[in-house]
Each structure stands twice: as C-alpha cells, then as structure tokens.
Amino acid sequence: MADLVTEAPLPAEEAGGRRANLIANLVQLARKPVFLLSVLYVLFVVVSAFWPRLFTSQDPYETNPAAVAQAPSAAHLFGTDIYGRDLWSRVLHGSPLTIKATLIALAIALVAGLGLGIVSGFFGGLVDAVLMRGIDVLLAIPGLLLALSIVTALGYGTVPVAVAVGVAIVPGFARTTRAEVLRVKTLPYVEAARAGGASWTRVLLRHILPNSWGPVAVLAVLDAGVAIIAIASLSFLGFGAAPPEAEWGTLIADGRNYLVTSWWLSLLPGLFVALLVLGLNHISKTLQELTR
To answer: Could you tell me the pTM of the whole model?
Structure first.
C-alpha cells in the first residue's frame, strides 16, 4: 500500500512536466520572428485555399481582351495572363487543388509509413528484414521518377497525382518511424512498464507511439514542402487537372513561353510556391531544433 501511495502522484507530475515543456517551447518559438512569419504565410496559403474569396473578388476564369498580359499593378497584384484573367485570383483559386492534393499525399504517407515503420521496428526479425528491403528498393528510385511512373499508370488528374506523390514519400516516413520505435523500445520506462505487467499493446500505444511522434511530425512538415514541389512539377508536365483549372504548376507552365515579354506569368506564381516551400522548410528546421 505504501508503494501505491508514493507512485500515484507520478502521472500528474509527468503531465505537469510535459505541460511546462510545451509552454517553454511555445515561448521560445514566439521569440523567432522568421518562424512566426513562416507560420503566418503558411496559414495565409491554407486559409486562401479553402476561402479564396476572402482575399480576392476577381473571377479566375473571366477573360478580358482589353486587359491582356498587363503587368502587376494595384488593380491586378500579379498582373493578367494572355487571356486577360487576373493572375492573383487564379493563383489563390488554384491553391485548393495543390493544398488538398498535398494533404491527401501526406495522409497516405503517414498511414502507410507509420504502419510499416511501427510493424517493422516493433516486431523486428524477419518481418523487419522483409519490410525494410522493400523500403530500400523504393528509396533507390528518385521520388519524382517514382511518382511519375505511378501517375502514368493511374491517369491524369489531381487525385492520381496526390496518390502518386503520397506513395513516393512513404519510404521516408517508414524509415523514420522504424528508427524511433527501435530507439524508444529499449528505453528504461518501456522495460519498467513491461516488468509491471503491461501488455505489449498497451506499451505500444501508451509509451512507444507518443514518444516516437516528434521526429515524424517534423518530417511531415518537411515533406509537405516536398509534396508541393512534386505536385507542382507533375502539373507543370501536364499530369494535373485539365484546363481551365488553375493549378500552380499549370500556371507556371502556361507562362514559360512568355518569359521575355511577360515575365510575371511564371515568375510570380513560382515565387508564391517557393515562399511556401521555404516557409515549411524553416518551420521544420525550427521544430527539429526543439526536439534535439
């Protein structure tokens, strides 16, 4: 009974310690202006993807022969394209296609990668060897080439592109999850839980998974940028949504023949995408520094 009395407060102390660490990390992040700017820009892009009308009143598909290929101005922030359509509006209305495709790709990679990594790291032995050799084969193929091969088999469109990119980034999630599971599985508190009679299922859900999630979450933020570049690249090559849909890669491809006379057609949508990817990379790097 004495042992029970002394051990009862530990969960509350552990929760308090985690809460204190979370608050300390948030305070540390709030002192990083570049991180805050990156978060604000990413939030802006995500919000504009679901509610583009909050930031533009222009119709992205309305042509205007009198305003063909106009340079950026107060009336048209990103200028107009060769059909007189407002490019800023087209970029914002193209956000849902790329962002939703990115979310689908990350969901596929998280579910499949976490599943493979957990099974491989937790069970080990022959299961680990077989699964990791398959992952090694996928890692040997460049991600964009693998995605291109898959989307060629699946067909054109936003969803096939998302599935192809999601499968291409699965190996990274599987490898990272496996490494974290192997690390956490050998820690003293896991052995103590087993010695106390906890089942392997409880140990996995209660101790291993919560303490393996940090690096995987950082990888998810980093791979969001990778997925955006891959999706935009496949759209640039013509595998994305059919015209007149305004995917980011399609917008960049549409302006490549007018770089000399109308540089903004490709440069400004490309800059919009590049800033998003750089913002995600900076967020990932900052979070990685906190988890060390």
So the answer is: 0.82
